[in-house]
Design a protein that fits this description.
OB fold (Dihydrolipoamide Acetyltransferase, E2P), six-stranded mixed sheet, 20 strands, alpha+beta, single chain, Rossmann fold, 2 domains, five-stranded antiparallel sheet, binds adenosine-5'-triphosphate
C-alpha cells in the first residue's frame, strides 16, 4: 500500500520563554488514521495540538496539509473539528441546534442543514432527544453531541484534547469504542491527546509517545508495547519490569539464569537494563537442585481472569501476571522458578 500523507508536522519546535515545549517534532500523519499523542504531564501534547489547530504558532518548522503550507493560516480558515475536555456546548440550546451550529456559521442553511443534523443524530443514536436542551443530558450524551457537532462540518482534521477524561471509568470505556467507530465511519484523520495509556492503546492506529517535548517513539500500539524504543517508553506503556542486569558479555546478558542476546548497537561491557512485561514471565515449580531463577512469591491477588504476583528474587520484586489456569497450587511464600522467553525481553543501555 502506498502511503498517503495528509498532514506533515515538519520539524516543529516551540519555545515559551526559556521552556522548550516542543523539540524538532517531525510526524507524518496518514489520511484517515487515528493518531494518539501520549505522554506525561508537561511533555508538550497540548502545545502540539494547539499548533495543529492554529491557536499557537511554531517557533520553528511548518505544517503541511495535503502538500500546502498552512503554518500561517488562522484557525477558522483551517476549519478543523475540535473537541476539548470542556466540550464548550451551548447548554440552553437544543441538541439539534448545537450540532447545526458550525454548519450555520458556514452558511449551510435550510434543508441541507436539517439533513446533515439528522444524519449526525442518527449516527450518535440520539434522534429521540434532538429537541432537548444540552443541559438536560447525561455526560456521555453530551460527549456524543460535542463529537457530532465537530464532525458535522466534515472537517479535514478532527482534533481532540483529553475529551473523555471527565467521564467515569465505565462510560469512558464505552465512549472510547464509540469514538473509534465514529472515526472509522467518517474516515476522518484524527489526532487525540491523552495521558492515559489504555485509552491510547485502544484508539490509536499510530501512537506517538512524547517526553520533554520530543518524540520518543511513533508506531502502531502493539509495536510500541512489544518493542519499546527505550526504557521510558517500556515503563510508561504498561508497567514493565525494569531490571538492572549488569554488563553485556559475549553479546548476551544473564537474566536470572536465562541468557538474552542483543545484537549491536549494544557492546560488551555496557551496563544493561532489561524490560519485561508481567504477562511475559513464566512461573514453574522448583526442583530440589534448582538454584538459578528461583524466587519466592511475596504477594498474590486473584483478578478473576488472571492472577497478579510479586515474586522476590535476588532482592528484586518482579510483577508477574498469569492466567488463572496457570497458577494451581501457588501461595504467598511458595518458591517458584522464573522463566523468560528471550524474544519478549527488551534490552536497553542503562541510563
Ligand atoms: P498536560 O498533560 O499537563 O496538559 P501537556 O503534555 O499537554 O501537559 P503542554 O501543556 O503542551 O504539556 O506544555 C508543555 C510545556 O510548555 C510545559 O512545560 C508548560 O508549562 C509549557 N507551556 C505551555 N503553554 C505555555 C504558555 N502559554 N506559556 C508558557 N509556558 C507554557
Amino acid at each position: 500500500m502506498t502511503s498517503d500523507i495528509h498532514l506533515h508536522i515538519n520539524k516543529v519546535s516551540k519555545r515559551f520563554g526559556t521552556v522548550d515545549a516542543l523539540r524538532d517534532v517531525d510526524l507524518k500523519i496518514e489520511r484517515g488514521s487515528f493518531v494518539c499523542l501520549l505522554g506525561p504531564s508537561g511533555c508538550g501534547k497540548t502545545t502540539l495540538l494547539r499548533i495543529i489547530a492554529g491557536f499557537e504558532a511554531a517557533t520553528k518548522g511548518s505544517l503541511i496539509l495535503d502538500g500546502q503550507d498552512i503554518s500561517n493560516q488562522p484557525p477558522h480558515k483551517r476549519g478543523f473539528g475540535m473537541v476539548f475536555q470542556s466540550l464548550a456546548l451551548f447548554p440552553h440550546m437544543s441538541v439539534a441546534r448545537n450540532i447545526g451550529y458550525g454548519l450555520k456559521l458556514r452558511g449551510v442553511k435550510g434543508a441541507a442543514q436539517r439533513d446533515r443534523v439528522e444524519e449526525l443524530l442518527n449516527v450518535i443514536q440520539l434522534p429521540h432527544i434532538a429537541d432537548r436542551p444540552v443541559s438536560a443530558l447525561s455526560g456521555g450524551q453530551r460527549q456524543r453531541v460535542a463529537i457530532a457537532r465537530a464532525l458535522a462540518i466534515q472537517p479535514p482534521l478532527f482534533l481532540l484534547d483529553e475529551p473523555l477524561s471527565a467521564l467515569d471509568a465505565q462510560l469512558r470505556d464505552n465512549m472510547q469504542i464509540e469514538l473509534r467507530q465514529l472515526q472509522q465511519k467518517f474516515g476522518v484523520t484524527t489526532v487525540l491527546v491523552t495521558h492515559d495509556q489504555h485509552e491510547a492503546m485502544m484508539l490509536a492506529d499510530e501512537l506517538v509517545v512524547l517526553k520533554d517535548g520530543a518524540i520518543r517513539q511513533s508506531a502502531p500500539p502493539s509495536q510500541i508495547y512489544n518493542n519499546p524504543a527505550d526504557s521510558f517508553v517500556a515503563d510508561f506503556l504498561g508497567a514493565a519490569n525494569l531490571i538492572e542486569v549488569g554488563a553485556m558479555k559475549g553479546g548476551a546478558i544473564d537474566l536470572f539464569g536465562t541468557p538474552v542476546k542483543s545484537s549491536p548497537p549494544h557492546r560488551d561491557g555496557e551496563q544493561m537494563l532489561a524490560a519485561v512485561r508481567a504477562e511475559h514471565i513464566g512461573l514453574s515449580t522448583v526442583g530440589k537442585d534448582d538454584k538459578a531463577g528461583v524466587g519466592a512469591i511475596s504477594f498474590m491477588r486473584d483478578l478473576g481472569a488472571a492472577t497478579e504476583f510479586v515474586v522476590t528474587i535476588d532482592g528484586k520484586d518482579l510483577r508477574v501476571r498469569r492466567t488463572s489456569a496457570q497458577v494451581q497450587g501457588l501461595n504467598v511464600g511458595s518458591k517458584v522458578g522464573l522463566t523468560f522467553d528471550p524474544s519478549m525481553v527488551s534490552l536497553f543501555k542503562a541510563p
